[in-house]
Amino acid sequence: MISGVHVEVFLAASYAIFLVAVAFVLELVARHSHNRSEGYRNSGFAYLPKFDSWECPEGQLLMRAAVNYEQRMAVYRAPAHVCNCCRAKKNCTDSDEGRQLETRLDSWVESELRRFHRGISLVLLLLATVILVVETIRHAAPRELLIVGCLLLPVGIADTKLFASFVTRKGS
To answer: Where a domain ends, among 106, 131, 157?
Structure first.
């Protein structure tokens, strides 16, 4: 006992905090990784949302040429005759049919990759919740309940928010 609180309660609370921290870091790292990979894929090109097109470093527009809804990808292509005459072609593409870019239709919030990482984070938070609930059952002293309750409330709120974003998709 430490200050009238069982050591097991401190250990369980510490482990729950650790699980919450890991879930939070996982969310941050996954989002950063996704955004970084998207940036590398189309490096040097600027997206123009007003025209739904990409602009290459030489100022040529790549217009949407095709959409694969099954793979959730859009293909943008520059005119072949423009690319074939471009001074930067050898550093840009080896295709004689014009430069092509593929982009994901889903943003990070809608992507399956986010859903996968969100599922892992949700499992970690649910595990923290279970640990804290078990501690409330095993140790019912007022100080112990106060410690566990102060952790259980924010973890429970995070659980419900993550679960809601996990099961809903934009446009569903």
So the answer is: 106
